[in-house]
Every structure is written in structure tokens, then in C-alpha cells.
């Protein structure tokens, strides 16, 4: 049984490979990577794999039984890129695709949902067995801003009192490894999120507690928050997207209390306190 992992040099993909190595032999893992010089996992075969190279993809998937398709990171290009991969998998005889989608992709107001839903549809219509991992937000999306927040004297955002059920990348990676190494998950759509939801007020309080500094949360209108992000050299369109995702968070779009992620990995998801500690 050969298991292929796309995006294996990315932050999530690397963790999936590591987790999977604890569950199956390294010889059964194939890292499918856009940038081969970034991939150095002892014992794991690496094959070049760029979602844009539609003609090249089928031959790189020969012999792969199960494929983890990690969603790409070029917003606006992903429907086409993921379609290339699914079509190639069909040609190569891949039997099962596991796809990393977005939490509540069918109901969320987060503007990333369209590309994920299109890929879910493509997958369901492909005739290949599938499992969909609708991943919630990574806690790291917020903890990455801790340094800037401390320097600026406040944690800023536009998420209001929205409850955020994020989990650490490692939790989602472990879930993917469980699904890839198991046989019971065909046709399932998992809503994956952290066990304990928090607001950005709670996050700022946790940072204050751990640093001994008084760090308030400052909620800002979307435009104002986007401008602040731009001042940190984040391109305008991406800054506006990030602020927009916080607005979705304020409406509860990052909340989930299904507990499906902790059930899948057989342990509680990483706590906010642990993620803050790691980031600090
Ligand atoms: N749930 C969340 O909070 C959240 C946050 C951010 C992103 N995401 C989504 O989850 C995915 C994984 O997250 P991450 O943190 O691991 O992101 P990441 O570190 O940016 O990794 C993305 C991976 O996708 C690969 N990739 C991008 N375009 C590709 C292409 N055309 N062909 C082949 N590979 C391609 C990258 O290859 P290289 O190594 O060569 O660059 C990289 O390995 C992201 O790509 C995005 O779709 C989710």
C-alpha cells in the first residue's frame, strides 16, 4: 500500500509525513513535492509534483494507492490546480483521495470556501473513493502575530467576540495520518476543529498571563485592521482577505463543537495555552 502526500514540504505536509512514519513503514510513503531540494525525509521516496503541470502528474502517481491532496496556497488558482491532481489520480489508478478542505465549507462565509467546495465536488464526481478533512483554523495563524502584538502593545484584529475553535497544525496532521493509515473512513466528511473555543480577548489574556505584560485585545473595523496589516508589508489584497476572515470569525464561522478532531486522534487537541507557550 503506497501513500502519496502532496505539499509534503509545507508546514502541514512535513508534519503529516512525520506522523505517518510512526504508523506505516517509510517505504510506503511517497512525498510529492513542488520543490524537491526542500524535501529531505530519510527513507521516504520523493517525486516532483507541481499541481500546474497537468501532463506530468499522472506518471508521478503511478503505484500510489492512497493520496493526501493538501490544498495549495495560491488563492484563486486552486480549483484548477486541484482538478489537475484529481484527473491525474484517475488516470494513474489511485484508489482513494483524502483532501484537506475548510471547516463548514458548505455554510461558512469565509471567502476561501468556493475553491474548496469546487474541489470537494470534483472529488465526489471522480468515482475515486474519498475522505474530506474540513480543517478549521490553525492556532498558529494567530500565535504568529504574538511578537508584533507585544511590540505594538495590543493584540489587534476584527474578530470581535467570535469564538474560534482552532487547533494546532500538529493536530490536523495527526488526523490526516490516522485517516491515511486506516481503512474505515471512505466517503466521510470530517469537520475538524479544536476542543475549546476562545475569543481574541481570551488569546490576549493568555499572552498577558504568560508574559506578565498587560496586553489588551483591540477590536478594529475591517478596513483599519487591513491597513495595519499592510503596514507590516503584507500585500493589500492579502491584508484585506485576512481582515475579512476575522469578520467571518466574528460571525462564528470558525466555531465548531463537534469534537470530531479529538475523537479521530484519540486525545484532546492542543490547548491555546500550549500553543501560546510554544510561540513565545
Ligand atoms: N486551516 C488553516 O488555518 C490554513 C491556513 C493556511 C493555509 N491553509 C491551507 O492548508 C494548506 C496547508 O497548510 P500549510 O500551513 O502547510 O501551508 P504551506 O506551508 O504554505 O504549504 C503549502 C504546500 O503546498 C505546496 N504547493 C503550493 N502550490 C503548489 C503547487 N502548484 N504544486 C505543488 N505543491 C504546491 C507548497 O509547496 P512548496 O513547499 O514548494 O512551496 C507547500 O508544500 C495550505 O496550502 C492552504 O491551502 C489552511
Shape descriptor: globular
What's the N-to-C terminus distance? Answer: 40 Å
Reading the helices and strands in chain order gives EHEEHEHEHEHHEHEHEHHHH
Bound molecules: NADP nicotinamide-adenine-dinucleotide phosphate
- Give the helix tally: 12
**Derived structural class:** alpha/beta
Task: Describe the 3D structure.
There is one protein chain. With 280 residues, this protein is an alpha/beta fold. It has 2 domains: 3-135, NAD(P)-binding Rossmann-like Domain (Rossmann fold); 138-166 and 194-256 and 268-280, Alpha-Beta Complex (UDP-galactose 4-epimerase, domain 1), CATH 3.90.25.10. Helix content is 42%, strand content 15%. It is built from 12 helices and 9 strands. Strand 1 (3-6), helix 1 and strand 2 form a beta-alpha-beta unit. Helix 3 runs parallel beside helix 4 (113-125) and helix 8 (200-211) crosses helix 12. It is globular, with a radius of gyration of 19 Å. The mean pLDDT is 96. NADP nicotinamide-adenine-dinucleotide phosphate is lined by residues 6-7, 9-13, 34-35, 38, 49-52, 70-74, 81, 100, 135, 137-138, 141.
What order do the helices and strands come in, and which of them pair?
Elements: E1 3-6, H1 11-21, E2 29-33, E3 45-48, H2 57-60, E4 66-69, H3 78-92, E5 96-102, H4 113-125, E6 129-135, H5 140-143, H6 146-152, E7 155-157, H7 169-181, E8 189-192, H8 200-211, E9 217-219, H9 222-231, H10 236-250, H11 260-265, H12 272-279
Helix pairs in contact: 1-7, 3-4, 8-12, 9-10
Bound molecules: NADP nicotinamide-adenine-dinucleotide phosphate.
